[in-house]
Amino acid sequence: MKTLAVFLLCFALAGYAQQKQMLRIQIDSVGVENRNGIRDFTFYYSIQNLTDQPVSFYLIPGPIFPNASSSQSNRPFYRLYQEDQLIDIWGIFEPWNRPNPEGPIQLRDTTTVEEVVSFDAFKEEQRKMLRNSRHTLAAKASLRFFGTLQWDGQRYFQHDDLEYYLDENKPHFIEIGINLLREELRDNFTEADFATLLADPTFIRGWYMSNRVPLDFRP
Fold first, then answer.
1. CA distance 80 to 12
2. Dist. CA 139–CA 202, nearest whole Å
3. Dihedral sign, Cα of residue 51, residue 57, residue 61, residue 67
């Protein structure tokens, strides 16, 4: 029984490793610009089809989100490291995710009809955006994207029990990842369209991470 379990685990890992080799995401360069106390990091990255067959996937390019929000998202995300420690916290590049200086937001306990309609319209717009974000790569072909992260010079961050300090004397690194979903996209399509999508042999899924590149947080 133990031998069978080990075999199944090795088989699963081998399948995952093979899946990972279908695409390669690569940070090609990083542009840095300082202006008005803000440091802009612009990442130019590419996604390459490593196979001899076309592949397709859904990815909404543009803003690069923190790793903490990437589990069920079809958007690129980043992982930031201080030396070898993962800095898994919101707010380093997104000031709007930091605590509200005016105190906790007061939530209302009622929802108007207008708010429900507005939320439904928003969700449908999100579904439409995803449906329009399909990319197809021919064999060995590449797609190139870019995204910008802004840092305002703040070094100390806290969220719940997590605390981090960006030490200017320590090296920092960043990598970009994509989580290509498949079955999880069901709610964005009609039943017939989703069945057609799943039957497409080029439609892939998988979790892919880029190379790790240095990031300069020195003054």
1. 28
2. 11
3. negative
**DSSP class per residue in 49-108:** E-SSS-EEEE---SSPEEGGG-TT-SS-EEEEEETTEE---S-SS-GGGSPPTT-SPPPP
The per-residue pLDDT for 32 is 97
Cα separations (Å) of 203 from 61, 117, 120? 18, 33, 28
Q: Whole-angstrom Cα distance, residue 185 to residue 205?
A: 11
Convert the pLDDT of each residue in 131-179 to its tens digit. 999 999 999 999 999 999 999 999 998 877 888 899 999 999 999 999 9
pTM for the predicted model, two decimal places: 0.78
From residue 46, alpha-carbon distances to 11, 26, 132, 212 in Å are: 30, 5, 20, 14
Best CA proximity match to 186, nearest among 205, 209, 202, 211: 205
Residue for token digits 């797609």? 143
**Tokens standing for residue 149:** 């992260």
DSSP-derived 3-state class of residue 132: coil
* CA-based nearest residue to 60, from 73, 75, 81, 41: 75
Residue 40: the pLDDT is: 93
